[in-house]
């Protein structure tokens, strides 16, 4: 390693260490670290409120069958059989209520929608072979279910009240190759995961140069260290903060994951990326790093031009829009692998890490990742060099440094 | 003092928005010397120093710092105290010094140890673990100064180091600069306060309007103006004027005039002969301040918003 490179690395790491320590060893960092708890708490409170409202109304919602009393056990049994097909209670139709018919079942059915005892979602009346079904504004699916239920009931009645029970032997299979849907889900998970993390974390670097400008430390730094090293050091320092954040919450989430019911395992087992899980995890980490460095270097360069907190705050909206745009592009690429939009997302520097993470889920080839990582590193270097140059010109009021090949060689 | 030059600048030019704030400045700073860059506000001193440090790039001219055309190549051997002082307020004083040293290649452990020792030496031992934000402005400035030398640089560049310091600390700083020179460092500093430069500079350059107007020793600068005679006759009347040179000006009982080319003796003989007598007589060398005003010009100094002592030569 040449002396110049060694010195550059040392200077970069000195800046990185200072920024990391200055960020982490402050009370504010705890607020930052536990921000997801605060956010989650508000979400949980909101969710509980919404669930309470929704549960209150859902608890009274019914599908109603106006049928002779003799048919009630048959339809109840059919209802029980059909409901077994639903994966969770949220997907099930409202509970079934059977009502004895009066002399005018049609009027009785219409009146059911005004019943004070329940909120009728759909009401069935008339002969079971050709029933009439009324349904409310949000009862179309309930009406469909009542149709199926009527058919099941009719079949049971025709067969003497006891539908034949099928005794099936069920064997869970594991796939030899990842399923297409599993790959797509993995791709989306990867794109969303990196987007989510960078949305939270990479924006932090926008205002980091403001500290040096406000404290006038920048003059000392600029005299001792090349601006490119200052920029890269700050980026690495803040990336260290991001890694600490991710490691902390990754550990917490892993512990929570171990508490999940065993029934969740098959669903997770479907999330098999094309490159295999260990390589996918490695690439996910790498692309998170690259996404952070790419977006961070752009934000750092832009933020370094801002001289006041107000200007920095004004930058938050375009930054968020940029991130969402990259996410949207990468999501489209993950959903349509091999298309022109996927190629654009793979190549465009700022969307490349997101899209390539999705690519890892959809395609087993590894060489594109080597090329993509090199490509992304090149752009990190370009963004840092451009940011430093703009800073040198705009803030330090200097002309550009001569290119290395035009500088006089050291004696 | 060594033979080689620690810093040379040839025809340095810097333009801001088309205006040449530094216009062909030449400097030669001998190794081991204390070299002052003097000039009124806005003369281009700071810009010149920043170019020599590699903070900004010149638009023209050549520079060599510690034998290298690119100052970045020797940044570990340079210490710098900028005009606008700046430290991280949340850092402890010792860590701030060690950090500045680390930027210049000093390992952190050594930096912290040296920082504590240096702070003790300058009477700041009690503030080693104080955060910068809790220090007074003068103390913080001293901490930054220590940070600029903690790595024991071969070249120390100080931009207006005396500004913002009280007289006691200014005196301490002068002693500090002399001690650094004795250690073997070359010191290049800018100032617009002549008294410091007059006391400690081995050589100096005077810059005004972006151009170098003078380069040499303090004595060279002072020698650019003639010496002055202050004569007090025994007889307080105006009759003595006829026996004095034409440029003699009365200031109370004292008459002032430039030392004549042939010396003072013939004039003294005449004065005694004519009975004016000698109640007082002194021959003064002009100070650096007067030389500075003479070199730069009264108008340029006043335009820079600086006071000019009354009675100074323009």
Describe the structure.
- Chain B: Residues 7-234 form the ABC transporter domain.
- The complex is a heterodimer of chains A (411) and B (314).
- Chain A is mostly helical and 411 residues long.
- Chain A folds into two domains: 3-36 and 180-406, no CATH class; 61-158, 3-Layer(aba) Sandwich (D-Maltodextrin-Binding Protein, domain 2).
- Chain A has helices at residues 3-24, 27-33, 35-58, 72-83, 105-112, 140-158, 180-201, 208-215, 218-224, 227-258, 264-269, 277-305, 309-314, 316-335, 340-347, 352-362, 367-394; strands at 61-66, 96-99, 119-125, 132-135.
- The radius of gyration of chain A is 31 Å and the shape is elongated.
- Mean pLDDT of chain A is 84; it is low at 399-411.
- With 314 residues, chain B is of the alpha/beta class.
- Chain B folds into two domains: 5-222, Rossmann fold, CATH 3.40.50; 228-284.
- In chain B, strands 5-6-7-3-8-9 form a six-stranded mixed β-sheet, with helices on both faces.
- In chain B, helix 2 (93-103) packs across helix 3 (108-121) and helix 2 (93-103) packs parallel to helix 4 (137-149).
- The longest helix of chain B is centred in the middle third of the chain and has 17 residues, at 167-183.
- Chain B is elongated, with a radius of gyration of 24 Å.
- The two termini of chain B are 34 Å apart.
- Mean pLDDT of chain B is 87; it is low at 309-314.
- The chains are: A mainly alpha (411), B alpha/beta (314).
The spatial strand order of the largest sheet of chain A comes to: 2-1-3-4
Unreliably modeled segments of chain B: 309-314
Largest interface (C-beta under 8 Å): A-B, 36 and 36 residues
| CATH homologous superfamily placement of the largest domain in chain B | P-loop containing nucleotide triphosphate hydrolases
**Biggest pleated-sheet summary of chain B:** 6 strands, mixed
Number of strands of chain B: 13
Helix and strand element order of chain A = HHHEHEHEEHHHHHHHHHHHH
Radius of gyration of chain A: 31 Å
The overall pLDDT of chain A, averaged over residues, is 84
Q: Compute the gyration radius of chain B: what is it?
A: 24 Å
Q: In total, how many domains does the architecture of chain A comprise?
A: 2
Quaternary class: heterodimer
For the termini of chain B, the CA-CA separation is 34 Å
> What's the tally of helices of chain A?
17
Amount of beta strand of chain B: 25-35%
Roughly how much helix do the residues of chain A carry, as a percent range?
55-70%
Q: Unreliable stretches of chain A, pLDDT < 50, 5 or more residues? A: 399-411
Please give the order of strands in the largest beta sheet of chain B: 5-6-7-3-8-9
N-end to C-end Cα span of chain A:
20 Å
Q: Would you give the CATH topology of the largest domain in chain B?
A: Rossmann fold
């Amino acid at each position: 390693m040449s002396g110049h490179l060694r010195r550059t690395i040392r200077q970069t790491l000195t800046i990185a260490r200072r920024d990391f320590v200055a960020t982490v060893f402050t009370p504010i960092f705890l607020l930052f670290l536990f921000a997801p708890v605060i956010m989650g708490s508000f979400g949980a409170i909101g969710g509980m409120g919404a669930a309470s409202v929704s549960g209150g109304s859902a608890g009274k919602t019914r599908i109603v069958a106006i049928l002779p009393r003799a048919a009630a056990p048959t339809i109840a049994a059919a209802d029980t059989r059909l409901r077994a097909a639903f994966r969770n209670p949220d997907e099930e139709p409202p509970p079934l209520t059977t009502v004895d018919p009066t002399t005018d079942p049609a009027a009785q059915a219409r009146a059911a929608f005004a019943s004070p005892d329940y909120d009728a979602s759909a009401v069935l009346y008339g002969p079971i072979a050709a029933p009439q079904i009324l349904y409310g504004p949000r009862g179309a699916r309930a009406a469909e279910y009542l149709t199926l239920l009527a058919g099941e009931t009719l079949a049971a009645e025709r067969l003497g009240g006891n539908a034949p029970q099928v005794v099936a032997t069920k064997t869970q299979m594991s796939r030899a190759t990842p399923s297409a849907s599993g790959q797509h889900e993995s791709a989306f998970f990867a794109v969303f995961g990196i987007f989510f993390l960078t949305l939270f974390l990479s924006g932090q670097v926008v205002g980091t140069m403001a500290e040096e400008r406000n404290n006038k430390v920048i003059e000392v730094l600029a005299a001792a260290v090349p601006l490119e090293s200052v920029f890269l050091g700050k980026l690495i320092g803040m990336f260290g903060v991001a890694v600490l954040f991710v490691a902390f919450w990754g550990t917490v989430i892993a512990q929570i994951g171990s508490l999940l019911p065993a029934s969740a395992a098959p669903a997770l087992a479907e999330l098999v990326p094309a490159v295999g899980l260990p390589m996918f995890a490695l690439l996910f980490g790498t692309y998170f790093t690259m996404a952070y460095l790419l977006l961070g270097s752009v934000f750092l360069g832009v933020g370094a031009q801002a001289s006041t907190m107000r200007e920095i705050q004004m930058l938050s909206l375009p930054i968020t829009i940029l991130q969402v745009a990259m996410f949207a592009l990468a999501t489209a690429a993950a959903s349509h692998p091999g298309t022109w939009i996927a190629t654009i997302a793979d190549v465009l520097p700022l969307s490349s890490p997101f899209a390539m993470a999705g690519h890892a889920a959809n395609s087993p080839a590894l060489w594109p990742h080597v090329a993509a990582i090199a490509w992304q590193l090149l752009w990190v270097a370009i963004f840092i060099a451009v940011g430093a140059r703009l800073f040198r010109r705009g803030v330090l009021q200097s002309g550009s440094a001569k290119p290395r090949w035009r500088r006089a060689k050291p004696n | 003092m060594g033979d080689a030059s620690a810093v040379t600048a040839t025809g340095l030019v810097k333009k801001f928005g088309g205006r040449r704030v530094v216009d062909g400045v030449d400097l030669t700073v001998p190794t081991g010397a204390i070299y002052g860059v003097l000039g009124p506000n806005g003369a281009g001193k700071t810009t010149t120093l920043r170019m020599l440090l590699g903070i900004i790039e010149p638009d023209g001219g050549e520079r060599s710092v510690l034998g290298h055309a690119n100052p970045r190549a020797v940044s570990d051997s340079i210490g710098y105290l900028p005009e606008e002082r700046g430290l991280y307020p949340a850092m402890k004083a010792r860590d701030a010094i060690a950090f500045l040293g680390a930027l210049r290649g000093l390992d952190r452990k050594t930096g912290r140890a040296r920082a504590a020792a240096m702070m003790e030496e300058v009477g700041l031992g009690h503030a080693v673990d104080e955060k910068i934000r809790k220090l007074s402005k003068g103390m913080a400035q001293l901490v930054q100064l220590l940070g600029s030398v903690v790595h024991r640089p071969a070249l120390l560049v100080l931009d207006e180091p005396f500004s913002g310091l009280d007289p006691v600390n200014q005196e301490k700083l002068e002693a500090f600069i002399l001690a650094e020179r004795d250690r073997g460092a070359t010191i290049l500093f800018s100032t617009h306060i002549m008294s410091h430069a007059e006391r400690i500079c081995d050589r100096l350059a005077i810059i005004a309007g972006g151009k170098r107007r003078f380069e040499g020793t303090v004595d060279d600068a002072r020698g650019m103006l003639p010496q002055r005679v202050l004569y007090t006759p025994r007889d307080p009347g105006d009759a003595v004027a006829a026996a004095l040179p034409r440029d003699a000006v009365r200031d109370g009982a004292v008459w002032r005039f430039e030392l004549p080319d042939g010396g003072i003796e013939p004039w003294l003989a005449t004065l005694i002969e004519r009975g004016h007598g000698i109640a007082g007589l002194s021959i003064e060398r002009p100070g650096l301040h007067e030389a500075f005003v003479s070199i730069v010009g009264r108008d340029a100094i006043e335009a820079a918003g600086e006071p000019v002592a009354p009675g100074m030569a323009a």
